[in-house]
Structure formats: structure tokens, C-alpha cells
From TrEMBL:
Descriptive protein name: Putative pterin-4-alpha-carbinolamine dehydratase
Pfam families found in the cross-reference section: Glyoxalase_6 (PF18029), Pterin_4a (PF01329)
MF GO annotations: 4-alpha-hydroxytetrahydrobiopterin dehydratase activity
Lyase recorded as keyword: yes
Amino acid sequence: MTILGTRQILDADLRDWRKLARALHARFLTGNFSTGLALVAAIGELAEEMDHHPDVVLTYPHVDVKLLSHDASGITERDVRLARAISELASAHGIAADPAAPAVVELALDTADPTAIGPFWAALLTGDSGAVDGDDVVDPSGRVPLLWFQHTDAHETPRQRFHIDLWVPHDAADARIAAAVAAGGTVVDATRAPSFTVLADAEGNRACICTTLDR
């Protein structure tokens, strides 16, 4: 299977869906639990018919759906087809989507030697010291955010420098940045926007607003 790039996904015009980090995400505004449960059941039947199974989270006011071809480690045409089918299903039930709502949080930790500390963080976060994929600590069950190691220079004095990466829809990034600035933050570095923009709070703690554009 061929992994689709960001431009191919944008050209597919999936009105309800946005690519965040590695997967397609959508939020459907069901408004109550029983409507959400019915939508989840319908998505389940559709997934069985298409032999492709999304991650689905049911809450009282909405249903979140995530699509990724795990065997290809990316988004493929199979995900695009299922995304369209789920959107058509939701529309038939009179359920609207909120494309600006999905978000994914990742943690980044500076280190000069990911192989030395990776097993520790994998064991701490997931209970499995082998849950390391390259520079990432990955929890297959999705209980904790992905942790990735940002390569830095070697240093003798122990230090700890985390920052948060927040993935948002590409067409919602400007509004999120503006909201953070209005709440007392500052833009530290926008030279790599719209790929990512570095912001800081009033004490200098940093975070990145990330999108899939220009990657």
C-alpha cells in the first residue's frame, strides 16, 4: 500500500477530516449519548464491511474517530475511502462534524543519547521497556501521548527539558496561536510556520503548535 502525502490528502477534500501527525481525525457532534452510540454501532458495521477498523471514542456530546493503516504505518487510500464513507454515514444520520476540534498532544524530550534513556521512558509510560520505535516511545493502547526524543548536544550536567507539541488542523492553527497570545503568550519563532510555530508563556515555558503543512 502506498502512503499518501499531505498534499494528496488535502486534494482528497475530506471535509470532515484533518490529518494530525500520522493519522486522520474527525469529531462528530452527536449531542447525546444514545445518538453517539448509534453512530458508533453504524461505524462498526461499516468497518466490518470494508475490513478496515478505525479507533473510535464515544463521549456524551461527540464521537471522535481516528484512521490509520497500521500495517503501512501511514494514511492510505483505504483510510480515505473509509473516511468518506463515515462522513456519508454521519450525514445520513443528521450528524455534523467539527473539523477544527481534533487535537493531538505529543511530548518532546531533549537528549544526546535516545538509546540510553528510551527503555526507561518506555517502561515508565507503558510498562514495556521495548515500546520504542526509533526516536519515539509508542503506547499501542493509546493510554499516554507519544514521547519523542529531540537530538541535542551532549552535556555533563544532568538536565531535563521537555516541551509540548500540539497538533491541530492546518486551518485552525492561526486561531489557536492567536488565542494563546491573547492569553498572555508570545510567539518565539515562526520561521518554520505553518509546519510549526514556537510559543512561550509568561515564564518562558515553550510549546509548539504543529500542522502537517510544509513537511
